[in-house]
Amino acid sequence: EHVPKELRPAVFLQALLRGGYGAPSFFANLVERWGGVLRELCRDPGAAAAGLQLVSVVLQVWESSHQHALLSLNCLSSAGILDPSTVVTGVYRQLLNRYPTSDDLSFAALNDLRFPFETVRFFLNQYRDRLRRIQTDIDMLLLAISRAPERDLDTMEAALTRARQMLQQHRQGLKRFLAATLDSLAQILRHYHGSSGGDRGDRDHHET
Fold this sequence. Notes:
mainly alpha; 8 helices
């Protein structure tokens, strides 16, 4: 109870990550068991910035393994705890925090530079595969409805409605993800362009 509300989701997630540190599969089991608690903590009005905090916690705990970090982030996304758009925003924000100037970026490890783009590609593939599966389900339901006896139509049409709603939700999620990705890239370009110009200005000032 002594932990401030805004920090409770991050503290709870850190405990889960430490408990499942042996492998992402251990962490997935813990999220399956305790994910509901974490979702409730994130819904608290005092934890408005919980999403980005959770991304930061995962990246800190798995700092030595981008692969495990990505798998853990995907686990939280699949459990409905993190939105992929929040994940990509947090990953790019970490790059800015770790390498605040263009000079710092020039000495960045190659894996650190690649990780944001690997994250984008990973979640884009996730969206693509899910959308394809749902569209396939819709096509199969439409075919089945065209051949179904009248007594089964209500059940099958209800399933079709649910599938179409899910398709729409995933399309909206993809739009949010793409918007967050483009926004993060724009921030990266503005930030490093500005820091590069500032660095050059400082050097010119010292030289004169």
